[in-house]
Structure formats: C-alpha cells, structure tokens
Amino acid sequence: MLPTDSVKRLSFKRCVSEGDLVIVYERHDNMKAIKVCESAVLQNRFGVFKHSDWIGKPFGSKVFSSKGGFVYLLAPTPELWTLVLSHRTQILYIADISFVIMYLEIVPGCVVLESGTGSGSLSTSLARAVAPSGHVYTFDFHEQRAASAREDFEKTGLSSLVTVGVRDIQGEGFPEKFTGKADSVFLDLPQPWLAIPSVGKMLKQDGILCSFSPCIEQVQRSCETLRSNFTDIRTFEVLLRTYEVREVKMNSFQGDEDRSTELPPCKRKQRLNEEGNGLENPSPPVVMARPSSEARGHTGYLTFARLKCAA
Amino acid sequence: MSIELNSNQNPKITWEGCNVLLDINDGDRLLFARLTPGSTLKIGNKSCSLQPLIGCHFGSLFQLETGDKGPFLSPVVEVSNQEEKGCKIDEPKDNRALVDNNTAQSLTGDEIEAMRREGVTGDEIVEALIANSATFDKKTSFSQEKYRLKKQKKYAPRVLLRRPFARSICETYFKKYPTRIGYLRVDSLSLLLSMANITAHSDVLVVDMIGGLLTGAVAERMGGMGYVCNTYLGVNPYPIDIVRMFNFSDEICKRIVQSPLAELSARENEISLQPGQPEDSCNTEKLTSPPPNSVNMDELMVTPENNNSEILTTAASPVSKACKAAKAGGKAPEVAIKSWRETGFSSLIMAVPDMDAWTIVKEVLPLLSFSAPFAIYHQYLQPLVTCMHNLQLGKMAIGLQIAEPWLREYQVLPSRTHPHMQMSAFGGYVLTGTRICST
C-alpha cells in the first residue's frame, strides 16, 4: 500500500499483476478489496470479470465484464481501505482519523501505541504516518480480532510497520518495555481512564495522548483522570458535511402576462412551449451544490492531552 | 525489534536558532519566535530575554518575574495538581448580592506597583489581591477560580514553549491571520493530507497559494524522503515563507523543490498544453504579490496585538536573519523532473483560495499517475463544484466528493460540560477524488 517498495509504487507504467491487492470500484459507495489471481473471477451485478483480463492493465483502468458492465481498478490507500475493510468492530472514519494523526503530531520515525486494534482502520493510517522508520504497536484483548488484524496488515503490506499484540490494556496497561518510548498513544477503550496512568508512563516528555469515546460520560471521567499529570486537555468533535453536485434546470420567472390563467408553473411552461410564441426562455442548466441530506451525526469525542513536562 | 528510533528526527529540546511557538497565558497570545541569546519578548510594558528558553523541553512553562536585573522568565514548577477545589454545582452561593461599584478591591494601583518594585512575586501579588478583595469570599468557587486566573494572567503571565508543528502553525495562523492561509482550518488541512495519501517516499505535486503552510505540512509528513514539488503558473514561484517555521532539517529542505508548470508539462502532453496562455492569465496577479522571501514571517513575529488590553507583545528582535539551514524551495533537479514525466506524481494537493480551481486542475491532473488521489482546498464552494462537475464530464476522475469539515470543541469540567460558547463556523471546503486512466 505504501510507496516504500519502488517496484510496486504508483506510476504510469505500474500495471496490475498477479498477487496485487486492488480496490474494485463500482460506485463511490460500493467498493471491494480483491487479491488478483490469474485463474479467479469476480462476479457482481455487472457480470463476470476475469482477473486475467486485469493483469497488465495500469491501475486506474476501467475493466469490463462478459456482459459489458464495468468497474475501475484502484491502487489501495488507507482511505480506500477504510471503506472496504470488514467491520469486526465499529471503526474510525476519515474525519476522525485525519484529525487524530494531525493532532498527535505523528511524523515519520515516531513510535505510536494503540489500543484497541479493532478492525485496524486507524492503524493503517498510523502506519502510513510513521513509515518508513517508525512503528505502530497496537493491542487488542480479543485474540481472534488481533489475528484478523494481523492478516489484514499482511495483505496491505504494512506488517513491517505494525505489530499487533494481544493484551488487556485497561487491566494490565501497556508493556513495561515501552516506558518512556512512545511519541503518541491512542486509546479507543470502553473505560479509558483505567489505562491513562500507564499511558503517562509510556509517553516521552511532551508526548500526546488521544482518547476516542462515543459517550460524554466516558470523556468526563477520562478528563478527571488526565488532570493529574497531563496538560492541554482538549476535547473535540469533528464531522464532515458532504455536498451533492447536480446540473439543474432552473426556469426563470417569465413575467406576469399569463397571470390571468391560474395554472401551476409546470403546466404553464408546457403551454408556452406548445404555443411556441418565442416567450419560452429555457435557461441553460446550471451546476449547483447542496448538502447531502443524510450524514453521520456523531462518531465520538476526541480528547487530547499532553504529558506534563517535569521542569 | 528495537523501539529506539532516531530521535534527532523528532527533537524534544530547543536549541539556539530554533523557531518556537510561544503561547502566552493559555492561548491569549500566540507568537512565533526564533531563540537566540539576543531575542526578547515583550509582555505588557516589560521586556525579557528568551535566552532561558534555549535548551529546554518543548512543553516547558515559564512565568514572568521581576528580579534585580529586571524582568526575566523563570521556569514554573507546578505545585502538584491543584485538585478541583470542590467546584460543586449545588453550591448555595450565587451572585444576588454582587454590586459592581468598583470598590471591592482595597489595594490601589500604586500599592501594587510598589510591591512589584520591591520584588514581590506575581503569585504573591495575586494572593494579596484576593486577601484584599471584599467580595472574593462571597463568590462561588467557580468564579473564585476565574478571578484568580484573571489576576494571575495580569500579574504573573505565563509563557508556554511549544514546538511548531503543522498543527500549531495552522492553528496560530487561523487564529491571527486567517486570510493569509485562505481560512484553512486545521481539520481541513488534516483531511487534505490524508486524502492526498501523503507519506514518505511519495512524489507529491503541490499548488500552494497559502504562503507555504501546505508545503510545510506535506514535507513534515514525508520526513525528507521523496519530493514535495511546488508548481506554479507563470515565472514567479508562490511565496512559501511559512515553511521556515517548521524547523526542518537540511534533508527535508532539500526535498522541497519548485518547478514551473510549463516545465513539468513539457513534452508530456504537448497537444493539450498551450504554454503562455494559462501562464499569462495568472501572471498579472502574481507579479503584484510579494516575491519569495518577503517579510511575511517577520511581520507575524512583531505585529503588536491591539485587541488585548493587558498584554502588548512584540517578539524576537530582528537579529541575525541569516538562516544557516539549506533553503527550502530550490529548483527541482532535472533528473527528478524527468522521472516525474515518466512515472507521474503519486498525488496532488492544492490550496488556491483565490483562484479558479478548474483552470489549474485541468493542467496539473494529467501530471498524476493513474489511480493517484488528489485533494483540493478552497475557501469558496462554487469553484470546487465547477471543478467536480468538469472532472465528471471529462471522465478524468472517480470517487469525487466535496466535504466541509465541522469542528466543535468542548469544555469538560465536573458538572459543567458543554460545547464552547464560541466556535469557528467555517474552515473551508475540500474536493477529493482519484485520477483514472482514460485510455
């Protein structure tokens, strides 16, 4: 997924080959991650797609099915991966993820601790941010979930950057060997306040913690715990409003000469057209935007805090 | 696997000559300064040296004290954690007896001035003010705390030493000079960086017309591996002075390069490119804008804040401006340009808050590899709408989306948790998508 490997990195000449992970794009809300295998086929509502047809085509190509339906083949990115990964848990979405990376001040070379791993949506972006020399150590107390996450990082080619451990961070804290080694720590736990004392030990001076909690009561308790040896405690909510863009025909008001006949606007227009008296003035379609009517209204609260500096 | 990683990539301690962000009185004043033995900071009518800040941990807190040799910054040793002193919501006190007739305080201004001359510490003055306030005891514990904080800010101002990061630089500009960065809020910036898939070893094409904030933020994420290629229409590169705030190492600076669009496009797409025309249309605008290396940064450092009555600050005497560090924004090397023509850029990131997005996008998008993501910032919605529509019509990209981030901060206190009363209602629009192969 990352351009560290110069053979596999994106380029005009980089073509799909056997064993590649591709994102099959049907529509913006319908995508799928597939490992290319010469003998395999993909079947969906657009027909049957032979992987062998894909091999040798550049990434970003449109490929056709036996029935003439088509999909696009995209190179995976952490953002696309977030849209296709299997949800073993509730996951973090792009607005929160990007804000977390920015606020945790993660740059190449950083050591980041995370718990829980969940579906690995955030871990993928963390790995991209610390690459190539940093590392993400992520922990989940659910053995099978940790194993699935490990498989996913293998699949996305991030396993050299992410280590998944099985551990109950709320109960046991982070492993002692990370004491004073972490640049930043991310918590997505039901009772984050239980892990905060351990986080204080793991962080380097001036290191930053982020805790993600869906409920304000969790935030309240975390903040009370944080006040003892953290500073700059700030809680945010970040959401995205998306826009629909459409070409719209707007009929302009034609004047009041026809007012006498009380007809609904559409009828009136028809009538004018029928008459063909040259009054109709079909304005050219205009491209317009409006907010999408449905949106995610809440994901969680992001609480950031910095370890106090011992003077 | 070793957990120890190169820490010089990510220094935690200040050094002579480094740029820092000073946060005065908990966000009341923010300013950038360069730490040199000669640089000074003015708080109120007092001027103090920034020398004590050299060699300290980022995150250290200082307080302005007055000593024999005048005002100086002294490190604050936090006296354990002040437990929330029973700020209870069901406290019986309220403000029914409060009469605002300006007689509650029995200490006079002259007396306070005398105390200061005698070298009484700021904290002691605050205690004296509390002891001499007739109404302090009648206040609720919540407003007592507020009173204490207000007096502390005036008589014992605190300076927090911050490391400039894309985050803090963006926040500071957004707060002080939002027009210079086209109202790009930190959540929009973070969305841009994610959606453009910025990471080490990428070759990122950047169109930065927000003074270098975008360029710096991209370079920070790449850690000196790969290239940040700033392109521009016409002959003058856009100024990127804000890059200087980031304390980049020479390795990172060398990877921030500039190249005119005409040069990047040459031979690549000769039919679609009509050199001259797109350039000229922008030239008129660019010629009037300040040349690179203008005074932007210094302006920022010495502009007195007029909207704050208690503290008038100027910072960092304009001492040796000579940046010994390699300069960011050199000309892109020939070999790199050649390789970009062959492979394409791995992503595109743009912030052109005062220009038509589409006329630029249609020129730069062909320079991207197929399947490369892009993220475009604008302070207005309409240019992105036009751009998105044209990309759709031209079948140039998929996964197109216009998003407007929304950011709300909360006050979290025992029994007093609620969203902040004031918030930023606008942080810009972001258009994202993926380039497709149209052949």
TrEMBL record, chain A:
GO terms for molecular function, please? tRNA (adenine(58)-N1)-methyltransferase activity
Which residues of this UniProt protein bind S-adenosyl-L-methionine?
A: S119, G120, S121, L122, D140, D168, D188
UniProt lists the family membership as follows: Belongs to the class I-like SAM-binding methyltransferase superfamily. TRM61 family.
The Gene Ontology biological process annotation of the record reads:
tRNA methylation
Q: Which InterPro entries match?
A: SAM-dependent_MTases_sf (IPR029063), TRM61_C (IPR049470), tRNA_MeTrfase_Gcd14 (IPR014816)
A single Gene Ontology CC term: nucleus
Keyword Amino-acid biosynthesis in record: no
* Superkingdom: Eukaryota
The organism of origin for this protein = Daucus carota subsp. sativus (Carrot)
Q: What is this protein called?
A: tRNA (adenine(58)-N(1))-methyltransferase
tRNA (adenine(58)-N(1))-methyltransferase catalytic subunit TRM61 C-terminal domain residues: 69-306
Q: Name one Pfam family in it.
A: GCD14
Write out the entry's keywords from A to Z.
Methyltransferase, Nucleus, S-adenosyl-L-methionine, Transferase, tRNA processing
Q: Which residue stretches belong to region Disordered?
A: 253-292
Q: Where in the cell is it found?
A: Nucleus
- Does Protease appear among the keywords? no
The EC number(s) given in the record are 2.1.1.220
Q: Which reaction does it catalyse?
A: adenosine(58) in tRNA + S-adenosyl-L-methionine = N(1)-methyladenosine(58) in tRNA + S-adenosyl-L-homocysteine + H(+)
TrEMBL record, chain B:
Pfam families reported in the protein's UniProt record: Gcd10p
Name where it mostly resides: nucleus
Provide the Gene Ontology terms for cellular component.
nucleus; tRNA (m1A) methyltransferase complex
At the top level of its lineage, which domain of life is listed?
Answer: Eukaryota
- Does this entry carry the keyword tRNA processing? yes
Write out the annotated subcellular location: Nucleus
Give UniProt keywords alphabetically: Nucleus, tRNA processing
Q: Name one GO biological process term.
A: tRNA methylation
* Polar residues composition-biased segments: 271-287
Region annotation Disordered: where it falls in the sequence: 268-295
Family, similarity comment: Belongs to the TRM6/GCD10 family.
Q: What is this protein called?
A: tRNA (adenine(58)-N(1))-methyltransferase non-catalytic subunit TRM6
Q: Which organism is it from?
A: Daucus carota subsp. sativus
